[in-house]
Amino acid sequence: MKKLQVLILVALTSALLFGCGKEPKEVMEPVVDQVIDDKPEETEQSGTAGEEADEDVPPAEGMVRSRVTNEWVTEEVNNTRPITVMIPNTKTAAQYGISQADVLYECNVEGSITRLMGLFQDWSNFDRLGNVRSCRDYYVYWSFEWDAFYIHYGGPFYIDEVINRYDTQDIDGLSSSNFWRAKDTGSSTDNAYVYTEGIKADIKKLGYSLEYRTGYADEQHYLFAKESEPNTLDQYSNAITANKVDMSSTYPVTKCYFVYNSDTGLYDRYQCLSGTSDGPHVDKANGEQLSFKNILIQNTYFEVRDQKGYLAFQCIDSTRDGWFFTNGKGIHVTWSKTSDYAATRYYDDLGNEIELNTGKTMVCIVEDGDSFIVDDEKITSATAK
Prior knowledge:
Elements: E1 8-10, E2 15-17, H1 48-55, E3 63-65, E4 72-74, H2 75-78, E5 83-88, E6 103-108, E7 114-120, E8 129-130, H3 137-144, E9 149-152, H4 160-163, E10 170-172, E11 180-181, E12 192-194, H5 196-205, E13 240-241, E14 244-246, E15 257-261, E16 266-271, E17 279-280, E18 291-292, E19 294-300, E20 302-304, E21 311-313, E22 317-326, E23 329-337, E24 345-347, E25 361-367, E26 371-374, E27 377-380
Parallel strand pairs: 5-9, 6-25, 9-10, 19-25
Antiparallel strand pairs: 1-2, 3-4, 5-7, 6-7, 8-12, 11-12, 13-23, 14-15, 14-26, 15-16, 16-17, 16-18, 19-22, 20-21, 22-23, 23-24, 26-27
């Protein structure tokens, strides 16, 4: 079988190997539907056995645990490949549908601004999603690990190597007739959107399959704790209190931060974009504030590529520093991604893979050497342990 091409990221005076050779998934096979055995009615029980049985009983026929959030979803949603969408995060960005992202990535691009990439498992009912902006190649590797359709609007020449790979399945607004520009955004650049039927039309035109490629249907990405036994992090003696996770020093233009809401058990997202006032990060489609059950932070090696400030991030790496926050607490972790399509794994300091809690996840990519603040404590990769 042919080996995947490797992606070479070019810096001013050196080169980094960011892609990782891996046998491509050449055969497109349908996903085998998950089957939920009918269980006989159980007599009243008390204790662990009864609780575990209830954990596995779907609220309605044909529903299964999401491979992305562990929430209950239909089999059709769980067996349809997700989409990842590049979304700008500037004061002119008009973000519609972003609150429905199951996983949201944030990382710096040139000029100290950040770009977001939303992973949407259920994208079956969008009439306006975006707005959509250009690709940065490091995001493609985070999209790869979900076997997602990667949606973007062009990008600099640095993306050519990975976008032109035969196994990359992207939808580009520069070549699609199914993107549309809204006139109500007040911006000439942050105004391109996609919609469900347009995405489906592009997938059909490009010859992609809605079904997961070989190996992905059974891939366990995140590990999840049982809802009846949530991961409180109380088992870690070195867990810290984390009522506020402030990423302002890492993302100086966005100035985003997360505040733990004890009533909902979620981290609500706020930001103070340059030239705007501090406030909740809100989806314009429904007025909902972005909130997350889990926050993952990845300290990552990076380089500046050129005088324009384009960046390169080493997505494939091992035993790098990070943090995990949930339920108002946090622990130090390490993360590892071993190949292009491999899932990013997160481990506690004893080497055990961590368990996330059911719900949405925020992934913050942090440049090596940068710091962030948890409550009143400054944390950097050098002091993380």
